Amino acid sequence: MRTVTSLPHPVRRDDHVWIPLSDGTRLSARVWRPVSSDDEPVPAILEFIPYRLNDLTFQRDSIHHPYLAGHGYAGVRVDLRGSGNSDGVLADEYLEQELRDGEEVLAWLAEQPWCDGSTAMMGISWGGFNALQIAARRPPSLKAIATLSSTDDRYADDVHYMGGCLLSDNLSWASTMFAYNSCPPDPAVVGSRWRDMWWERLEHCEPWLVEWLRHQRRDDYWRHGSVCEDYSAVGCPVLAVSGWADGYSNSVFRLLRNLDVPRKGLIGPWSHKYPHLGKPGPAIGFLQELVRWWDHWLRGVDNGVMDEPMLCIWMQESAKPATAYEQRPGRWIGEPSWPSPNIEHTDFVLQRNRLAKEPVPDDGVRGVREEGEPLTIESPLSVGQFAGKWCSYNAPPDLPYDQREEDGGSLVFDTDVLTERHEILGSPVVHLELSCDRPNAMVTVRLSDVSPEGRATRVSYGLLNLTHRDGHDRPEPLEPHRPYRVDVPLNGVAQAFPAGHRVRIAVSTSYWPLAWPPPEPVRLTVFASRSSVTLPVRPMRDGEQSLAPFGEPEGAPPTPVRRLQPGDSRWTVSRDLVDYRSALEVVKDLGVLHFDDIDLDVRRRADERYDWVADDFESVRGTVDWTMRFTRGEWDVATVTHTTLSCTPTEFVVHARLDAYEGEQRVFSRNWHTSVPRDHV
Predict the structure, then answer these.
(1) pLDDT in tens, 182-239
(2) Residue 124 pairs with which residues in a beta bridge?
(3) Which CATH code of 2.60.120.260, 2.60.370.10, 3.90.1700.10, 3.40.50.720 fits the domain covering 344-537?
(4) pLDDT tens digits, residue range 262-296?
(5) I need a labelling partner for 645 at 20 to 30 A (CA). Which of 126, 135, 331, 598 fits?
(6) Helices 286-299 and 58-70: crossing angle, nearest 10°?
(7) Superkingdom of this entry's organism (predicted)?
(8) Which CATH architecture has domain 2-154+224-335?
(9) What is the average per-residue pLDDT within 548-571?
């Protein structure tokens, strides 16, 4: 990324800004704005997240907020209530309190003498979520938003559930927030009251995993904050952004389809990162694109930003399977609208080991009768150990590896060798006629690009809890051995399949540890001749030109950070053939960083373990341990959290522990042990 040291406007930074709320709470903020804004007010752009602006996000913030300020805006970073140096307690995601706080912050910003009364919101992940949710509340000063890696449907596309199946990211993310919520404010900012503030957080810190497990179906808990409940509530222009390695690309398509405000979509090859920091690459000059977006909607500049394609996407070329990529080959293409008139939905029929556009005629040897025989599968629990994360956080190696070993425990259907190049754009859908021998089951469908050498690169996938076949809000047990017709939508994707390759569909009954398995092993029968796949084919058009590439990534100079101890990143799959115990172990050690500006050392480390024994569905277990430590001179504080999720056929069982330390002395300790009934999961 190119560092820009000369910007159109000189920038000042206002540290330790306190934003008062109506209930007496104060939120911690940092503001970057043009020096000239004292006399010439500017629009304010808010990023509102819980990730500690004083340390954990300071370096990232210093790259993009001063850049926006240097182009004539006030970049404002605010910590949510109960996070960083802000007062209060953070009790859960996207609560009504958080959204009301956000509205108050926008109103406060609009009234500042350096603000011209116009505001906007931007953010990735949490900040993208609440930008979209607050836009649906129509605060009067809010003129536009940029929402990245977020969703319009909190049940359909988030770390909690996918297709009605419980994701292991539900445990992983809950454990992350368990650790973050236990961290103290900085005494250099809040003074002597830091310990009282910390103690309040510790006493009210709860493992959010328990609450999320209490809502295993799409109920009012998930409807809150899901703008898909009423798209018309969103009243300002929306720029929606994601990446193919991210977990949130589906919402970009839905927002473009359903919003009735000016909108644009952008999907690149990236993981859960801002596109100017995007990996896998190519990263793009996203901050330049943001400036164009804000210039048009906050300043009324006629810069043609809305004359460009509604949807700009990276069409990925074929690549060997790998758990990490520096770059994904491909090209930028544009669609004038979504749904696009350029997509042709093409059906392929499932046959024994084959995908065919038409059923194979009866040739007297292996005719339609054989092709139509039911196919059965009872996948081992090991199917899924090479699935990678539900959402890549660019914490290599967290992308899916070669799917051939997964395919060994699956039903596999391949096209003939392609004689010409094919491209798809959108969400493939697999239509299955099936039956099960148990009342509770899941099905996983994977779409792969198979090279002439046989390597299988996963392109997309979908999960469906079969008890949710009629809706995620009304699960019903299956009647064993009764045939059902179900549709399994796969994640949206843009992918090219070269001539000489094959397209593969693989069907399995488990995908652990990406998703929690059902209560007991399941044998699935697929009636292949009555099942099919719909692919969103984007035909090659004569004379079509790729979009011009984006500018080079650039940003303001990052604040100085020194690495005192190196980090570590590991992803280990193991199997003991004596006791048949298998495990996936993930290490995310960020080492020790020293923040020069505030003379602070910060250590972060997470260890995740997902293990099981043979095909014992009651043995599956996930464990996550976090350590957070902050040191400055004699001030030395740490929190250590531990969360374990296990199960019985009828319950999920959560054990959690929180310990807090000053120096080597433990000053706080609490344990939780809770069981939650399984609700058709």
Answers:
(1) 999 999 999 999 999 999 999 999 999 999 999 999 999 999 999 999 999 999 999 9
(2) 148
(3) 2.60.120.260
(4) 999 999 999 999 999 999 999 999 999 999 999 99
(5) 126
(6) 50
(7) Bacteria
(8) 3-Layer(aba) Sandwich (3.40)
(9) 94
